[in-house]
Amino acid sequence: MTLDERGRSPVAPGASEAPATSWRQLEDDPRWYERAVFYELVPRGFYDSNGDGVGDLRGIVEKLDYLAWLGVDCLWLLPFYPSPLRDGGYDVADYWSVAPDCGSVDDVALLVDEAHRRGIRVIADLVINHTSDQHPWFVESRSSRDNPKADWYVWGDDDQRWSDIRVIFCDAEPSNWTFDPVRQQYYWHRFFHHQPDLNYENPEVRAAILSVVRFWLDLGLDGFRLDAAAYLYQRDGTSGENLPQTHEFLRQMRAEVDRDYPNRVLLAEVNQWPADVVDYFGDGDECHMCFHFPLMPRMFMAVRREQRFPITEILAQTPSLPDGCQWGIFLRNHDELTLEMVTDEERDYMYAEYARDPRMRRNLGIRRRLAPLVENDRGVAELLHALLLSLPGSPVLYYGDELLMGDNIYLGDRDGVRTPMQWTPDRNGGFSRADFAQLVLPPLMDPVYGYQAVNVEAGIRDSSSFLHWLQRMLAVRRQHPIFATGAIEVLPADNPSVLAYVRNSKDGEERSVLCVNNLSRFAQAAEISLARWRDTVPVELIGRAQFPRIEDDAYHVTLGPHGFYWLELEAQR
Amino acid sequence: MTVPESLAAVAPLAVAYLERQPWYQVVMGSAARRTPTLVSAESIRPGPPGLARLLLEAGESQFQLLLGWRPAGEAAALLGGREAALLGPLAIGDEPMLAYDALADDVLCAELLAHVTSGAEHATMVRRVSTLVSHASLVFDERLFMKCYRVLEPGPRPEVEVMLRLDEIGFNAMLAPVANWRVDGCDLALVREFQPSALEGRLLAFTSLRDLLAHACAPDDTQPVERIRAETELASADPDAQTASAGGDLAAEMRRLGSTTARLHLALAEAFGVADATAETFAAALGDGRGSEAVLTRIPAGGAGRVVRLHGDYHLRRVMRSEAGWLVAGFGDDPLHGSEPGAGRAAVRRGSPLEDLADMCVSLRGVAREALGQRAPEETETATHLAHAWIRRNESALLDGYERTDGVAQLLPGDAEVTRLLIAALAREKELRYEATSSDT
Question: pTM of the predicted model, to two decimals?
Answer without folding.
Answer: 0.84
